[in-house]
Amino acid sequence: MADTSPSTVIDARGSYCPGPLMELIAQIKLARIGDILEVWATDEGSAKDIPQWARKVGHEYLGTETVDREWHVRVRKSK
Protein backbone atom coordinates (compact mmCIF):
# COMPACT_ATOMS: atom_id res chain seq x y z
CA MET A 1 0.00 0.00 0.00
CA ALA A 2 1.26 3.49 -0.72
CA ASP A 3 2.90 5.18 2.23
CA THR A 4 1.04 8.47 1.71
CA SER A 5 -1.86 9.27 3.97
CA PRO A 6 -5.35 9.43 2.53
CA SER A 7 -6.96 12.84 2.09
CA THR A 8 -10.35 11.29 2.82
CA VAL A 9 -11.39 8.14 4.67
CA ILE A 10 -14.79 6.74 3.73
CA ASP A 11 -16.17 4.51 6.48
CA ALA A 12 -18.48 2.16 4.60
CA ARG A 13 -18.25 -0.67 7.14
CA GLY A 14 -21.57 -2.49 7.42
CA SER A 15 -22.65 -1.40 3.94
CA TYR A 16 -23.07 -4.01 1.23
CA CYS A 17 -22.22 -3.89 -2.46
CA PRO A 18 -22.59 -1.52 -4.21
CA GLY A 19 -22.79 0.80 -1.17
CA PRO A 20 -19.04 1.28 -0.54
CA LEU A 21 -18.40 1.93 -4.24
CA MET A 22 -21.27 4.41 -4.43
CA GLU A 23 -19.89 6.26 -1.40
CA LEU A 24 -16.48 6.42 -3.08
CA ILE A 25 -18.00 7.76 -6.30
CA ALA A 26 -19.81 10.51 -4.38
CA GLN A 27 -16.66 11.54 -2.50
CA ILE A 28 -14.30 11.37 -5.47
CA LYS A 29 -16.48 13.93 -7.25
CA LEU A 30 -15.70 16.37 -4.41
CA ALA A 31 -11.98 15.55 -4.24
CA ARG A 32 -9.16 17.33 -6.03
CA ILE A 33 -6.89 15.65 -8.58
CA GLY A 34 -4.12 13.90 -6.66
CA ASP A 35 -6.20 13.35 -3.52
CA ILE A 36 -6.08 9.86 -2.04
CA LEU A 37 -9.32 8.32 -0.84
CA GLU A 38 -9.43 5.25 1.36
CA VAL A 39 -12.59 3.17 1.68
CA TRP A 40 -13.08 1.00 4.75
CA ALA A 41 -15.44 -1.86 3.94
CA THR A 42 -16.59 -5.06 5.57
CA ASP A 43 -18.05 -6.31 2.29
CA GLU A 44 -15.35 -8.40 0.59
CA GLY A 45 -16.79 -7.63 -2.84
CA SER A 46 -15.61 -4.04 -2.46
CA ALA A 47 -12.00 -5.26 -2.53
CA LYS A 48 -12.63 -6.40 -6.11
CA ASP A 49 -15.21 -3.87 -7.31
CA ILE A 50 -13.39 -0.68 -6.32
CA PRO A 51 -10.07 -1.47 -8.09
CA GLN A 52 -11.95 -2.55 -11.24
CA TRP A 53 -14.02 0.65 -11.23
CA ALA A 54 -10.98 2.86 -10.58
CA ARG A 55 -9.07 1.40 -13.52
CA LYS A 56 -12.11 1.54 -15.79
CA VAL A 57 -12.76 5.24 -15.19
CA GLY A 58 -9.11 6.33 -15.12
CA HIS A 59 -8.22 6.72 -11.45
CA GLU A 60 -5.15 5.14 -9.86
CA TYR A 61 -5.72 2.10 -7.68
CA LEU A 62 -3.06 2.19 -4.94
CA GLY A 63 -3.75 -1.04 -3.11
CA THR A 64 -5.86 -2.93 -0.63
CA GLU A 65 -4.97 -3.85 2.92
CA THR A 66 -6.92 -6.31 5.06
CA VAL A 67 -7.26 -5.27 8.70
CA ASP A 68 -9.29 -7.46 11.09
CA ARG A 69 -11.78 -8.68 8.44
CA GLU A 70 -12.04 -5.20 6.93
CA TRP A 71 -10.74 -4.10 3.57
CA HIS A 72 -9.04 -0.72 3.27
CA VAL A 73 -8.91 0.22 -0.41
CA ARG A 74 -6.96 3.27 -1.62
CA VAL A 75 -7.55 5.19 -4.82
CA ARG A 76 -5.88 8.37 -6.10
CA LYS A 77 -8.08 10.75 -8.09
CA SER A 78 -6.38 11.11 -11.46
CA LYS A 79 -8.78 13.23 -13.46
List the keywords.
Translation Initiation Factor IF3, 2 helices, 79 residues, 32% strand, 4 strands
List the helices and strands and how they pair.
Elements: E1 8-11, H1 19-30, E2 36-41, H2 46-57, E3 60-67, E4 70-76
Parallel strand pairs: 1-2
Antiparallel strand pairs: 2-4, 3-4
What would you say about this model in short?
The mean pLDDT is 94. By secondary structure, the chain is an alpha+beta fold.
Task: Describe the fold and architecture.
The protein has a single domain (8-76), classed as TusA-like domain (Translation Initiation Factor IF3, 2-Layer Sandwich). It has a 4-stranded mixed β-sheet with strand order 1-2-4-3, covered by helices on one side. With 79 residues, it is α+β, with helices and mostly antiparallel strands. Helix 1 links the parallel strand 1 and strand 2 (36-41). It contains 2 helices and 4 strands.
